[in-house]
Amino acid sequence: MMETTYTNPHAPTDATLDEWVETVVATHFDPDGGTPYWLEWQDDRGIDVRERVDSFADLRDVFDPFDQDVLRTLSAAEFAPQSLDGDRRVYETGGTTGAPKRVVMRDYWREQARWTARLLAEWEFPTGNVLGLAPPGGANNAGTFVQHLAHEWDALPYHVTMDPRWAKRLSERPDDREFDDYVDHLLEQAERVLESQPIAVLFTTARLLERPRVRDLVADSSIEGIVHGGTALDRDTHRVFREEWYADVALAGEYGNTLMGVAPEAPPSLRAPSERAYHLDYVPCYPYFVPEIVDDDGDVVPYGERGTVRLTVLTEEFFLPLLPERDAAIRIEGAGDLPWDWVRTPGTSDRASEDAVEGVY
Q1: pLDDT of res. 336
Q2: Fewer CB within 10 Å: C terminus or N terminus of the chain?
Q3: What pLDDT score does 351 carry?
Q4: 3 state DSSP class of 33
């Protein structure tokens, strides 16, 4: 069983996970202001979800694993509560494994940036202008996240935008030259920014950090810190990043996606990289999303064991119960004032690897 009585000192709510589940269910299944998709789902089954669910454990009793294909075809407004007002946006996933999935959000990515900034502060991480090198823009969340993160530091965001769908198409061609040309195009734009602008933090992908040209770009610039994500990073490469290639700058990872949010790397004060043998340990933004590590029967695995990531997103903007992810990871215990379950060394599972695109992103 997973502990559900913790609270997150860095989150806007001081609710426990069970208490927050009740709040989210009350929002999305409210007869007057709830979410059209979920109200119809409830009516089709002849149940009252608000009566059936008052804890996180109840979700598995009421809901089947969520079919994410719904988000590929459903009108985005049908998946947002009718009570959600203000400046809403439609965000969509990268679309590299099929048609993009869409969801309506308002404040979520601002809150995720605030959460990340609070954890990075425990690293004594550099702050200042941020260059997002290759995170998708437009309808994707990544460019928005870079913007909000810079604003948390009262700084400016700069963007070199990558199109993951075009990158996927190029990566599928037999000749790698076009793909490499596209990457060079991105790096040329980054170099132009760094030639004239005072950039303190680089936000990019782990795969790009492996390229010698990016190492030179960082060494010759004003960059003091790097936040990396987007692709899995093995332990040996992580060690080389920290001890050799990027030893002169602060380095922190993040794990996340459009539907989930951001899980920053655990602060070294709680578990230093060398103490965890250069595993990447990520801290989910409890109680807003809960990545459970489960076995083939859907049961949570013991600590230290690897399984498939099953994601539940609990926000008043959108609700995703029991979403099977393509990633596999190790379940580990949290620490300090972040005691809930963490995610260790996530990466594309074997069964999903054929559809994964990790050349840049």
Answers
A1: 95
A2: N
A3: 56
A4: coil
- Mode of pairing for the β-strands spanning 201-205 and 306-314: unpaired
CA distances from 193 to 216, 217, 226, 308 (A): 15, 11, 16, 40
- What is the predicted pLDDT for the residue at 168? 84
| CA–CA separation, 201 and 150 (whole Å) | 9
Determine how many CB atoms are found less than 10 A away from the CB of residue 153: 20
What pLDDT does residue 355 have?
53
269, exposed or middle or buried, with CB in 10 Å at 0-12, 13-18, 19+?
Answer: exposed
Q: What is the DSSP string of 216-245?
A: HHHHTS---EEEEESS---HHHHHHIIIII
The secondary structure element, H or E, covering residue 307 is strand 306-314
Are the C-beta atoms of 29 and 50 separated by less than 8 Å?
yes
Number of H helices, E strands in the chain: 12, 13
Helix, strand or coil for residue 90?
strand
Cα 87 to Cα 153: distance, rounded to the nearest angstrom: 22
Which pLDDT value is given to residue 353? 47
Domains for the chain: give ranges and CATH numbers.
107-285 (3.40.50.12780)
Largest CA distance in the chain: 63
Phi, psi of 339 (to 5 degrees): -85, -5
Q: What is the Cα–Cα distance from 70 to 61, expressed in whole angstroms? A: 21
pTM, entire model = 0.93
How much of the chain, in percent, has pLDDT values that exceed 90? 80
- The parts of the chain modelled with pLDDT lower than 50 are 353, 359
Work out whether the CA dihedral 75, 79, 85, 90 comes out positive or negative: negative
Question: Residue 77 is inside which H or E element, if any?
Answer: none
The residues, any chain, with a CB within 8 Å of residue 89's CB and separated by 6 or more, are 104, 105, 106, 144
Query: Which amino acid is residue 239, in one-letter code?
Result: R
Q: What is the pLDDT of residue 202?
A: 98
Residue type, 329: A
Report the alpha-carbon distance of residue 254 to residue 280 in Å, rounded: 9
